[in-house]
UniProtKB/TrEMBL annotation:
Transmembrane segments: none
Taxonomic lineage from the root: Eukaryota, Fungi, Dikarya, Basidiomycota, Agaricomycotina
Biased composition annotated in UniProt, kind: Acidic residues: 565-582
PANTHER family attached to this UniProt entry: EUKARYOTIC TRANSLATION INITIATION FACTOR 3 SUBUNIT 7, EUKARYOTIC TRANSLATION INITIATION FACTOR 3 SUBUNIT D
Ranges where the record places region Disordered: 1-28, 54-81, 113-164, 298-330, 558-582
Family note: Belongs to the eIF-3 subunit D family.
Annotated signal sequence range: none
Biased composition (Polar residues): 54-70
Protein name: Eukaryotic translation initiation factor 3 subunit D
Function recorded in the entry: mRNA cap-binding component of the eukaryotic translation initiation factor 3 (eIF-3) complex, which is involved in protein synthesis of a specialized repertoire of mRNAs and, together with other initiation factors, stimulates binding of mRNA and methionyl-tRNAi to the 40S ribosome. The eIF-3 complex specifically targets and initiates translation of a subset of mRNAs involved in cell proliferation. In the eIF-3 complex, eif3d specifically recognizes and binds the 7-methylguanosine cap of a subset of mRNAs.
Protein localization: Cytoplasm
Extent of Pro residues compositional bias: 310-319
Amino acid sequence: MPSFSLPPINDNPDGGWGPSSSNLPERFKFTDIPYAPYSKSDKLGRFADWNETTTDNRQTAVGAPSAQNTRAGGRRRDGAQAFGSGTASAFAYFHVEDESSFSLVDNKAAPPRRGGAFMRGRGNTRGGATYNTRGGAQRGGRGGVTANRTAQRGGRRGWRDWDKNTRTRESSVVISPSWSMIEEIEFNRLGKLRLDVDEPEDLDSYGRLFAYDKSYDRVTTKTERPLQLVDRIKYNTTTTEDPVIQQLASKNTATVYVTDVILSVLMCAPRSVYPWDIVIVREGNSLFFDKRDGGPFDTVTVNENASDPPQDPPPPNPNNPNEKAQEAPSINSATSLSLEATYINQNFGSQSVIENPPPPAVDFAHPNPFYGPDETEPLASCGYRYRVFDMSVTEDEDVRICVRTEVDAYTPGSGNPREGNGLVTIRALNEFDPRAQGAGGAPDWRTKLDSQRGAVVATEMKNNSCKLAKWTVQSVLAGAELMKIGYISRANPRDNTRHVILSATSVRPTDFAAQLNVSLANGWGIVRTVTDLCMKLPEGKYVLVKDPNRPVIRLYSTPPGTFTGEDEDGDGFDEEQVDSAA
């Protein structure tokens, strides 16, 4: 039977791991070789790890703790001192000879990174995101730098940031010292108002409608059509000058009288950025909401809600006689773009209808109330529907509002338009220059409209939130089944006189209101609040003004002759003075 003798056990009285230097036998005492103590949690590294490199290009030492294992496998508490930390480099091997000719042959495929397959983007991939050198992050890895450049080019970020805070807009109307402010309401208060209104009552209809040309729905960027100049008359008469409303008011049909253009601005007031004003006249128990001729209600805004909207050049300083005369405004200024958008909307609405039958034109119950017997120019396709909405909260009160609504065409084969079937409103969005200041980062429509329409629509919903909301509210008030939206662009970005139609789409107003997050209940709550506020005041003339630089509306009491040219007390302003000041 073989014999077995127990070897001697050398205990370490210092409490460390392994024998102490004093208990080592003589033959194991290598005083010329450094000894690296290590902890139980440390893992022994590999003899040679070709996949792991350190910052100083040294291979992992034999028997030294691996950096990865020390970091992940040790599971030490933060702040705990590890045995041997800082001494593993004593066994490291330094490359002192030139090994540039040495190469490692490895036929194995490289393991995939965490987060998925290899990305093709520029920069380092971490979890599927590409971080480029310009500070932008792009999912998917490809196009990170391109997306960042596009944002800088389209949004013009960083350009004249020092001047943005100093730009102030002028009020749409001159506030006279004789006006007394009655109420000031912030937009955050308006956003909390709610009022549910039932279906309206149709009173009467006027005008003539043509059929919408469905061929425009098939237009693409490759089959674009030029926008034509169509000479047609379309009226935008204010409330008190409407003969139909005057007849209805004499019969006490409602409490409030307004047009859909004015009402939509009031219902979408929390989205507005540019200044506007509404003239309110109280006569007896009736309220009339009016607009001024040449005011903000006669034009269409462009990129009002963009982060850096288009700007008008500052007016010349009258106190500086040495200042040079102001140059002509740029075609991309706010005023020029507004006039251009108005021109586009009027011509696209007249061009996209069929005037020569078939299908025939549809005449409403009465002819156009604004077309006089001496007029010789042809009328544009337009129908007026006078409708009454009940804004009463309780059964005891009777607060009704009469609205003159407009429709632009009808869809053939959708029923009788005289009964409200197949009615259409036509609007147009316009592109001026994606690289100009105020473009709001909009993509190039000619390259993105057919393939990425959703991105184009999302950008327009962001930059023109107020304008699209007003169009949607007008379509809902008129009872239109469809709203046609055309996409019109300049034939040349430097020429604002020639345009082409790139596409046209159809949306249902109620569905589009949900996409825009437009609450009609909130809009009716705003209208009812302003109505109650004015009905508590004595008879007279008032002005509701949107502050040009703050989200606030103010109600002023004005002299009776304001905006009429009479100016009996010398305190009012006639329309020419107001327009020149605005």
